[in-house]
C-alpha cells in the first residue's frame, strides 16, 4: 500500500500544484473520492475547507487532509487509467506546451503517466537522464528503429551541465519534438508510446491475436489475448471493449506445447487448477514467445517477485543510489587525501627550512674555518720569512724552532680534529632537534591528558564544594533551630521562675489566711463555750467543717490540702522536665 500511495501522490501532486486550492480544493477532493472509490466525508471536507485560519491555505495545508481522509482509505479497487486521466485533465491545460507537437494529446497523457512511474521519489518531480535513456530506448525499440547512443550522449552532456533532469512537461516536449524519432510518422510513434504505456503502466507483458478452443462447443474462435502478471484476459478484438473471459494465473499453473492435430498448428496448453485452455498461435515463433512469456509469469508468481519492468526500475534506482553513495565516499576520501597531502607539504616545508638553516650554519662554519686557515697560512708565511731573515743569526736555535714548528703543526691538526668534531656535533644537534620535536609532541599529548584530568579533578572539586556548601547550609539551619529552641527554653524558664514566685506568694498568703482562720476558729470556740452555759436559748450557726480552709490569690480554695499537694508535685515534675 505504501508503493501505491507513492504512485498516487505523484499524479495528485501535478493536479495539486496546478489548482488554486482555496477555490478548487473541494472539486479536487470530490473527484479523487469518486475515481478512487473512497466514501465521501462531507463534514470533514467542509471542516477542513472552512474560511478561517484552519483552512487549506493555513499551516495545516491540503496534504494532511488528503492523507487522512482519502489516501489512507484507498483499497486498490479503482481504475488507474481513469484516476490518472482525471489528474491529467486538471493540470494539462495549465502546463502543456502551446507549441505544436508530433504526438497527440492522448500520447502526451501516456508519456505523462510514464513519467510519474519513472520519476524520482522527491518533489518537485523530475526524471533523471538514466531513466530518460531507458524510456527513449523502449520507444525506439517499439518503433523498430536503431538507437542513436552518440546523439543521446551529446544531449545528456548538455542536460547535466544545466540541471539534474527533466519535468513531465519537458519530457513531453522532448518526445513530441521528434528529436529522437526522426524519419518516423505520427502513427508509428503513437503505437510505440502505447506499447510502452501498456507494458510499464498497465503491466501488459504480451498481447496479440490467437485462436482459443471453446469449453462447451469445442469450436475455435479468434481472440485478442492480453498477458498481465497474474491474469490472461481475452477479448473479441484489440479495442478491449468486449471481454470474453480471464485465465487466472498462479504458482500452480503450467504451460506446455501440444502437437498439431485436427488441422490446427502451433498448439499449446495452459493448465490451471479448475480449467485447461487450448490455444493456437499464428506461427511457431509466436507460439514459443507466448509459452516463454506465460512460463516466466508463472515463475515470477511462484517466487513472489514483481513484474520485470518494476523490478528493473527498482534495480536502476538502487544502482543510482549505490553510485551516488560511492561518489560521496570517493569525494570524502579525496578531501581526506588532500588534507593529508597539505599536512605533508607543510611538514616537508618545515623540514626544508630546517635543512636550509642547518646548511647556512654549516656554510658559516666552513667560512670561518677557511678564514682561520688563511690567517694561519698568512701567519705561517710571515714566520717563515722572518726565519729566513734571521736564519743566519739563529742557527743555534734551529732545533728549538723545529720543535716549535712541530708543535704548531700539532695545533693545526688539533684544529682540524676540532673541526671534524664540530661537524659531528652539528649532526648530533640535528638529531637532537628531531628527538626534541618527538619529545615535544609527546609532551603536548601528555599536557592534553593532564588538562583532561585537571578538568575532571576540577569537576570533582566543584561537586565536593557544592556538597560542602549543602552541608554548611544544613548545619546553619540546625544551628538556627537550636538557637530558636534555646530562646524558647529561656522564655519557658523565665515563665517557670515567674510561676515559682507567684506560687511562693500564694503560699505566704495561704499561711497568713490559715493563721487568721485559726484565730477565727479559737474565737468561735470561746463563743461556743460561753453559749454552752446557757441552756440552748441561743443556737449559733456553726461552720460546715472544722478542717482548716485553704486560701488562694482569688479567695477561698475550692480544693483540699491533699489536692494542693498533688498540684505541687505536678509543678515540680514539670520544672524538672523543663530544666
Overall description:
The chain is of the alpha+beta class. Among the domains are: 1-95, no CATH class; 206-306, Pleckstrin-homology domain (PH domain)/Phosphotyrosine-binding domain (PTB) (PH-domain like), CATH 2.30.29. The chain is 66% helix and 8% strand. It has helices at 2-18, 21-35, 42-48, 62-69, 80-95, 105-118, 129-143, 149-160, 168-176, 186-200, 284-303, 308-390, 398-533, 561-578, and strands at 206-213, 220-228, 231-235, 243-248, 254-258, 267-271, 276-280, 551-552, 555-556. The strands form two sheets. It has a seven-stranded antiparallel β-sheet with strand order 4-3-2-1-7-6-5, with helices on one face. Strand 5 and strand 6 form a beta hairpin. The longest helix is centred in the C-terminal third of the chain and has 136 residues, at 398-533. The protein is flat. The two termini are 87 Å apart.
The chain-level structural class is alpha+beta
Uncertain residue ranges = 52-59, 535-542
What fraction strand?
A: 5-15%
The CATH architecture of the domain at 206-306 can be named as Roll
- Residue share in helix: 55-70%
- Total strands: the figure is 9
CATH topology of the domain at 206-306: PH-domain like
Distance between the termini: 87 Å
CATH class of the domain at 206-306: Mainly Beta
Specify the number of helices.
14
H and E string: HHHHHHHHHHEEEEEEEHHHEEH
Rg (CA only)? 59 Å
CATH superfamily of the domain at 206-306: Pleckstrin-homology domain (PH domain)/Phosphotyrosine-binding domain (PTB)
Mean pLDDT: 82
| Biggest beta-sheet profile | 7 strands, antiparallel
Placed side by side, the strands forming the largest sheet appear as 4-3-2-1-7-6-5
Shape: flat
Amino acid at each position: 500500500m505504501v508503493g501505491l500511495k507513492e504512485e498516487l501522490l505523484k499524479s495528485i501532486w501535478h493536479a495539486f500544484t496546478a489548482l488554486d486550492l482555496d477555490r478548487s480544493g473541494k472539486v479536487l477532493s470530490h473527484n479523487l473520492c469518486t475515481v478512487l472509490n473512497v466514501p465521501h466525508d462531507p463534514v470533514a471536507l467542509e471542516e477542513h475547507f472552512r474560511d478561517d485560519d484552519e483552512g487549506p491555505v493555513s499551516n495545516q495545508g491540503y496534504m494532511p487532509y488528503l492523507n487522512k481522509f482519502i489516501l489512507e482509505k484507498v483499497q486498490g479497487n479503482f481504475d488507474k487509467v481513469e484516476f490518472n486521466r482525471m489528474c491529467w485533465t486538471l493540470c494539462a491545460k495549465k502546463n502543456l506546451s502551446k507549441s505544436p507537437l508530433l504526438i497527440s494529446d492522448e500520447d502526451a497523457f501516456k508519456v505523462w503517466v510514464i513519467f510519474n512511474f519513472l520519476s524520482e521519489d522527491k518533489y518537485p518531480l523530475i526524471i533523471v537522464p538514466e531513466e530518460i535513456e531507458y524510456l527513449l530506448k523502449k520507444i525506439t525499440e517499439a518503433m523498430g528503429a536503431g538507437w542513436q547512443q552518440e546523439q543521446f550522449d551529446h544531449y545528456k552532456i548538455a542536460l547535466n551541465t544545466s540541471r539534474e533532469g527533466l519535468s513531465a512537461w519537458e519530457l513531453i516536449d522532448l518526445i513530441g519534438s521528434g528529436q529522437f524519432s526522426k524519419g518516423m510518422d505520427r502513427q508509428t510513434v503513437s503505437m510505440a508510446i502505447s506499447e510502452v504505456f501498456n507494458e510499464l503502466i498497465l503491466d501488459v507483458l504480451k498481447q496479440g491475436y490467437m485462436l482459443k478452443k471453446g469449453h462447451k462447443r469445442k469450436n475455435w474462435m479468434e481472440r485478442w489475448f492480453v498477458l498481465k502478471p497474474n491474469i490472461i484476459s481475452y477479448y473479441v478484438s484489440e479495442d478491449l471493449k468486449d471481454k470474453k473471459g480471464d485465465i487466472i494465473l498462479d504458482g500452480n499453473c503450467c504451460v506446455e506445447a501440444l502437437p498439431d492435430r485436427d488441422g490446427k498448428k502451433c498448439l499449446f496448453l495452459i493448465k490451471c487448477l479448475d480449467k485447461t485452455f487450448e490455444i493456437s498461435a499464428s506461427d511457431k515463433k509466436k507460439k514459443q514467445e507466448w509459452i516463454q512469456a506465460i512460463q516466466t509469469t508463472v515463475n515470477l508468481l511462484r517466487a513472489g517477485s514483481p513484474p520485470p519492468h518494476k523490478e528493473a526500475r527498482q534495480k536502476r534506482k538502487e544502482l543510482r543510489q549505490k553510485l551516488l553513495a560511492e561518489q560521496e565516499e570517493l569525494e570524502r576520501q579525496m578531501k581526506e587525501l588532500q588534507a593529508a597531502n597539505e599536512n605533508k607539504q607543510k611538514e616537508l616545508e618545515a623540514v626544508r627550512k630546517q635543512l636550509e638553516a642547518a646548511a647556512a650554519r654549516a656554510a658559516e662554519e666552513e667560512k670561518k674555518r677557511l678564514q682561520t686557515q688563511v690567517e694561519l697560512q698568512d701567519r705561517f708565511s710571515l714566520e717563515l720569512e722572518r726565519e729566513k731573515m734571521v736564519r743566519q743569526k739563529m742557527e743555534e736555535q734551529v732545533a728549538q724552532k723545529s720543535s716549535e714548528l712541530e708543535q704548531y703543526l700539532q695545533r693545526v691538526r688539533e684544529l682540524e680534529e676540532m673541526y671534524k668534531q664540530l661537524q659531528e656535533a652539528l649532526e648530533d644537534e640535528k638529531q637532537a632537534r628531531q628527538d626534541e620535536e618527538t619529545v615535544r609532541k609527546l609532551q603536548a599529548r601528555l599536557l592534553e591528558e593532564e588538562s583532561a584530568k585537571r578538568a575532571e579533578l576540577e569537576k570533582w572539586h566543584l561537586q565536593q564544594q557544592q556538597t560542602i556548601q549543602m552541608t554548611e547550609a544544613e548545619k546553619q539551619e540546625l544551628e538556627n533551630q537550636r538557637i530558636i529552641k534555646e530562646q524558647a527554653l529561656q522564655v519557658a524558664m523565665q515563665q517557670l521562675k515567674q510561676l515559682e514566685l507567684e506560687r511562693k506568694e500564694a503560699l505566704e498568703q495561704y499561711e497568713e489566711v490559715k493563721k487568721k482562720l485559726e484565730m477565727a476558729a479559737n474565737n468561735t470556740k470561746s463563743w461556743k463555750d460561753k453559749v454552752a452555759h446557757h441552756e440552748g436559748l441561743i443556737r449559733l450557726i456553726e461552720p460546715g467543717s472544722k478542717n482548716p480552709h485553704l486560701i488562694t490569690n482569688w479567695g477561698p480554695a475550692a480544693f483540699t490540702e491533699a489536692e494542693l499537694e498533688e498540684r505541687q508535685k505536678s509543678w515540680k515534675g514539670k520544672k524538672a522536665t523543663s530544666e
